[in-house]
Write a structure and sequence with these properties.
single chain, 4-stranded antiparallel sheet, alpha+beta, 157 residues, 3 helices
Length: 157
């Protein structure tokens, strides 16, 4: 019988514990103002975006690259024929010329905003294994290549 009397006491004990969790300030639960009105967050002055002007490109100066450095895309195509790749990214351009001996990558940038791009840097590698080769030697080898579609033969009138 003792067990029956202790069971009704458990819910009453739990109820008493839960009643103690309700607010601790003794107030009616209303929010009171401090008397100071809320302020709006201040906005920082917004600056208009500034246009970035790129500095002039650095121009590669190496022996044997004369006639390539400073050349326009049209001048390079006249020297080496149609490029294998022509990649444009922003105002930069990369032309890639290739033949059996080597691959020549020519990087072009405009010398000033609004001007035509000019070659500022060249890189050369072997076509077979991509190992770096002398730029001047690659340029000379590509200049000696016959025009595309001629198979090296020249037709005379």
């Amino acid at each position: 019988m003792v067990l029956l009397r202790s069971r009704p006491a458990v819910p009453l004990l739990a109820l008493a514990l839960l009643a103690g969790c309700g607010g601790g300030s003794g107030g009616s639960g209303t929010v009171r103002s401090t008397g100071t009105p809320p302020t709006k967050p201040s906005r920082a002055a917004v600056r208009p975006p500034q246009r970035h002007i790129a500095p002039p490109p650095l121009i590669q100066t190496l022996p044997g690259v004369a006639g390539v450095i400073g050349a326009t895309p049209g001048e390079l195509i006249r020297q080496f024929g149609a490029p294998r790749l022509d990649v444009q990214e922003g105002d930069a351009r990369k032309l890639q010329f290739a033949a059996a001996p080597c691959v020549l990558d020519v990087y072009l940038y405009p010398p000033a905003p609004g001007r035509e791009a000019q070659a500022t840097y060249v890189d050369a590698r072997r076509a077979s294994d991509a190992q770096e080769v002398d730029r001047a030697t690659c340029i000379a080898a590509l200049r000696r290549q016959p025009p595309p579609g001629t198979n090296g033969s020249v037709t005379r009138p």
